[in-house]
Amino acid sequence: MEMVCISDNINTTTGMRLAGVEGLVVHEKAEVKAALEKAVANKENGIILLTEKLAKDFPEIISNIRLKNQETLLVEIPDRHGTGRRSDFITSYINEAIGVKI
Prior knowledge:
By secondary structure, the chain is an alpha/beta fold. 47% of the residues lie in helices and 22% in strands. Helix 1 links the parallel strand 1 (2-7) and strand 2.
């Protein structure tokens, strides 16, 4: 089983390649869609790493891939600019899930 990284910047892709994860850089909607479809079609890919910026910019493509695909895990990762999430995102998930503020 392999991983592939789909990123919107060369720095993230280079860092992942140094870690042994192949990847590609995409920017346009058609490029993102084609890259995801190709990555999902390759049955060797078990995990697809996708930068948070691409996931935020093209949510309809990401949702569609997640709904149609059951074999490959699609994971959003922060890029060189850090995460787009709030600093207390884990605590807010716990609060929402169990209804108790910690």
